[in-house]
Amino acid sequence: MKSVTLKIEGMHCNGCAQNIKALVSSEAGVRGADVSFKDGQARILFDPQTVREDQLVEVIKKAGYQVPAQDQ
What we know:
The protein is of the alpha+beta class.
């Protein structure tokens, strides 16, 4: 398992956070997700052999949110 914290821009309310959580959680390989409107971020636990981090970022972007480049 791998955990990643992504900064997310464009959320306007807790409903946005719940929408992102539902979208990410429905992806194969995702074991858990916690999305915070207040913190502007998502913490995702996933199996890197099933889904890649960039695929998760794309799911979020396709929903209309921005995911700035992450500091490595």
